[in-house]
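User: Can you recover a sequence for this backbone? Please restate the input before giving your answer.

Assistant: Of course. Working from this structure:
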């Protein structure tokens, strides 16, 4: 399966615990087929003893979620869209809803 999500894309979570949330992609892990999304899928970090004093807000961090659970939000029509590719070599992505290029 080809990864169609890129860093800085806005995505909508369509399945799982975080369903319905939107966020910006911070990073993509192609080998694991996972994406890290800002403020989505926050988990409490296991703190080491010396970190116990850190503010609780800093003790949460994003955990990557599976790529099949997200849809890219088209920057043109602002809707979660199925992404197509015009050319496998150029990797130009486009929105199947409005037909505009995303990259
Ligand atoms: Zn679109």
């Amino acid at each position: 399966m080809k990864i169609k999500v890129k860093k800085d894309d806005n995505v909508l979570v369509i399945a799982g615990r975080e369903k319905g949330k939107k966020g910006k992609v911070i990073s993509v892990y192609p080998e694991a087929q996972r994406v890290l999304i800002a403020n989505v899928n926050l988990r409490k970090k296991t703190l080491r003893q010396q970190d116990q004093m850190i503010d609780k807000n800093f003790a949460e961090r994003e955990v990557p979620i599976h790529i099949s659970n997200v849809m890219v939000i088209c920057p043109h029509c602002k809707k979660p869209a199925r992404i197509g590719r015009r050319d496998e070599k150029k990797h130009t992505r486009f929105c199947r809803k409005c037909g505009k290029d995303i990259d």
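That completes the design. DSSP finds no helices and ten strands in the chain.
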